[in-house]
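Continued from yesterday's entry.
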Amino acid sequence: MSSVSSVAASRTKDALAQEKRSGTPQPDLTRSNQEELASLAEYVEVHARIAEILADLDAGATDVAQAQDAVQAMIPKPMVLVPLPPASKEAVEHAADVARRIVERAAHAHVGQAHLKRATVEQIATSAG
């Protein structure tokens, strides 16, 4: 096995030396890996919280309204940053228009999500994962 290790090690050294000679910049994999891990951790945390809410609901420790409120609390609230003075009047008006459109469309999104069939949700979850 030691010969295999040394061959693999020499190939790695050769590949690194060749990349240095070619001047090809190496991508920052650690940053993208950290972002991916952070995203995955958030995903796992949300699923764990939902499982906890459903377990409480199943055990009778909470009712449907409380479970719904707990799930709604996990959904991030949309936010519009209004530019501070000396911003132009147009910039402030544009931010206000964007905020109004978000509020109008949020109601449509909630209604649309409330009426999904179970098979649709399962298909989306399967294709996303």
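--- second protein ---
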Amino acid sequence: MEILGNFAELAVHVEKAGGCLSVQMYDLRDRVQAGRLDDGPIGQIKHNLDQAGLAATTLTRQQYDWTLVYTRRSPIGQVILAAAGGYEHSDETLRAAIKTLVDSDTAMQSSEREELEGLRATVDQIKALVSAV
């Protein structure tokens, strides 16, 4: 159960980082409580990433190697999966995934901009109330 918690915690960090996060292999090794990065622990890492809704670009035996851990169903995860190719319509899937990523990023920027404008309007109202006194 503790190992699942370790990967659930990693999923939270990946989500906070925008759907992808660079992680060193020793961090993943420690999350499965292994001493070495052999086939068994790498298989456990892959299984637990999958259980947490995550994936990694590469899983190596070198503890100081970096890998990109990402949320599979996030817009950036879809781009990473599509970019891996390997099937007939990879190019079309990649274009669609990039469009979805750009659209979601634009929507996020719009909502942040609207929130900022709302905060500015509130500050202006406060200033008007204070200056009237």
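Strands lie at 20-24, 54-56, 66-71. The radius of gyration is 21 Å. Will compare against the first tomorrow.
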